[in-house]
Write a structure and sequence with these properties.
The protein is an all-alpha fold and 195 residues long. The chain is built from 6 helices and 2 strands; from the N terminus they run αααααββα. The protein has a two-stranded antiparallel ribbon with strand order 1-2. Helix 1 packs antiparallel against helix 2, helix 1 packs across helix 6 and helix 2 crosses helix 6. The two termini are 43 Å apart.
Length: 195
């Protein structure tokens, strides 16, 4: 029982982490790339864009580690890339022309959509059933409704609590499946980068 509860807590953390990291990747890459392209006519833009693209390998490896921790899906790490030899402009050209950087940016930014789905589904399958379990304690003090019906009796509050416990049991399998799907997404991301 304790192990199942810890697994569900770990699933909730991973789903919320997926949302937060998706928001971060979208904001970071959108702002950085637009700023780098906007400033590319100056001396600052191209080095900024180059350094932003260098972060992709770090973030992709971080995703691999998080997937291993939360889903126990093992993914082979990417081979470390060496910086191009030469001056700063040759290094910038190498980074900008490396297709793996742009593929990584695409897959990391796409995680925003997956993160939004994870947030909604995580709340529905993990948070809502727990809230249903507390309805008998709350209904005397708050005006609660359940699908348009007012919760004004102890019998109805207990029925909602029972539904909450049933949903907790059933939804934990759905949550585990969703977490495994996100782990599969990370595996697909690595396959796309390795091509």
């Amino acid at each position: 029982m304790k192990r199942a509860i810890m697994r569900n807590v770990q699933n909730v953390i991973f789903l919320l982490y997926t949302f937060v990291s998706g928001v971060f990747y979208l904001c970071f890459y959108m702002v950085s790339i637009v700023l780098g392209l906007g400033l590319s006519f100056t001396v600052v833009g191209i080095p900024l864009l180059t350094n932003v693209l260098r972060t992709t390998q770090t973030f992709v490896q971080h995703e691999r580690i998080q997937t291993k921790i939360y889903t126990d899906i093992s993914i082979e790490p990417l081979a470390t890339r060496q910086r191009a030899e030469g001056n700063q402009w040759k290094q910038a050209k190498a980074e900008l022309m490396d297709v793996r950087n742009w593929i990584s940016v695409y897959w990391l930014m796409k995680k925003f959509v997956i993160g939004c789905i994870c947030l909604v589904v995580g709340v529905l399958i993990y948070i809502a059933p727990v809230c249903f379990a507390f309805v008998p304690l709350l209904y005397p003090y708050l005006e609660l409704t359940f699908f348009g019906f007012p919760v004004d009796s102890e019998l109805m509050a207990l029925q909602i609590m029972g539904l909450g416990f049933i949903l907790m049991i059933g939804c934990s399998k759905i949550g585990t499946g969703l977490v495994q799907l996100i782990g599969g997404y990370t595996r697909l991301m690595f396959k796309a980068i390795r091509r």
